Amino acid sequence: MAVDLSSYRPKGDKRNSAFFEEFLPRIYERRVRSGLEQVVGPMAAIVIQVDHGNALPYLAELCLTTPYRYQECWLNATHRIYLLKGAEAFPRLIVLEPLSLDFEDEITRWNAMYPLSIDKPNARYIGEVYQVSSCADLRAILEPQNIRFAYPGETVNPFYASEHLCFTFLSDYTYNRVGYVERPLDGLATLDLGDRILLDEEALQPLHDAAQRYRDHGLEGRILGIDHLATRVLAGEREDAILEYLTMVPYYYWGSYDIVEMNSSTNVTRHPTVSDDKLSPARVFTANNTPSYLNSLFNLPMPTEDFVRNFGRRMHHIAYEVADGDVNGEKNVDVVVKTLRQLGVSFLADIVGECGDQPNLRQIFSKSSPYSLLITEYVERCMGYDGFFTRQNVAALTEAAGLEERYEHGHVFD
Q1: Per-residue pLDDT at 1 exceeds 70
Q2: Is the overall model pTM greater than 0.85, yes or no?
């Protein structure tokens, strides 16, 4: 059932500013008036870039830990472009790999600004791609609203600016792009991105082996599609990041909760018409409640802001839903985690959340990927739990990630 944005009241206990409360409904109204909601559909893909030489190891990692499987590879002037698919109706996954070690664009320069991303100069979650009826119509709607787009000849990587696939500039608030595609992403041939290349069996064998281990160990059918995507931003930019995103896509502000123990808030946006979040995953924005320069007045934990100071504004984790069910008295998520640990995957802490006689969530964070720097979350919605998260779970996950993402410098350890 579609959400009626004119009457919907956001969930949660996080208090927003008068600025946010004024402009949220005005953004909804402008989307309708401008025709954006008729032009932009659900999420079609997510895009991740890794460093030169890391694409195939990263694809093998994905084949072992997610339902995504390699489909094809294309070559443009600066990158190899890999397409992966999961379940047929869910968003695709595109991996970009620079052709040379010395490739540089704005991502490289921004990664160089932060102490824990500088060693992976081109590794970054790029952004989501949404289905559109026309890139030209989409730009005509958003450019008068001061949303900037990449154009041919103005971007180092031509992937971001083609006739049928277009991307915004990197957001000042999230350092992510938003992309739009006017062709189905069953393959990349119709996008005219460059030349298709065929990988030899030696290159593909690690991917085949990882996918075979995934099947042999009973993970197939247990790990489903992407549930949500979570970006971390600075405390003072939380509202701007949310409102900017809602300007560009037909999502709605589901609500925000304070995670007092971790001095942060979790802020959720979702697609209002899909029946299953995996068809167009929720976009989450997490931010500190107090900026770092004031925190010494309170001496509160601040793993969220520390992450931004150490890695930059960026995507923090991608969450995959695990099918609800039991195997010999164990919840599916427990079976998945135990199996992945046996296969060499490391996790930050124990699974959090109890699945007893009432609906709940049970979830866990992996350690971050050495290739993408992204954490993978696995979440099981027990007994039809229809909420998005629980405070206790989020607090525990945030704490576990914060212990892993610290940076030691001088006499400070954050």
Answers
A1: no
A2: yes
Banded model confidence at residue 407, pLDDT cuts 50, 70, 90: low
Four-residue CA torsion sign, 120, 121, 124, 129:
negative
Helix, strand, coil % over all residues of the chain, rounded to 5: 30, 30, 40
Q: Check residue 217 and report its DSSP letter.
A: T
Average pLDDT over residues 32-47: 98
226 CB-contact burial (10 Å; exposed 0-12 / middle 13-18 / buried 19+) = buried
Could you tell me the CA-to-CA distances from 96 to 68, 93, 177 in Å, in that order?
15, 10, 14
Closest CA to 120 of 128, 112, 132: 112
pLDDT digits (tens, 9 = 90+) for 319-350: 999 999 888 888 899 999 999 999 999 998 77
pLDDT band at 396 (very low <50, low <70, confident <90, very high): low
E strand segments, 290-359 = 314-322, 326-327, 330-331
Cβ neighbours of 24 (radius 10 Å)? 19
SS (H, E, C) 63-74: HHHCCCEEEEEE
Distances (CA, A) of 83 to 79, 141, 320, 388: 13, 29, 19, 29
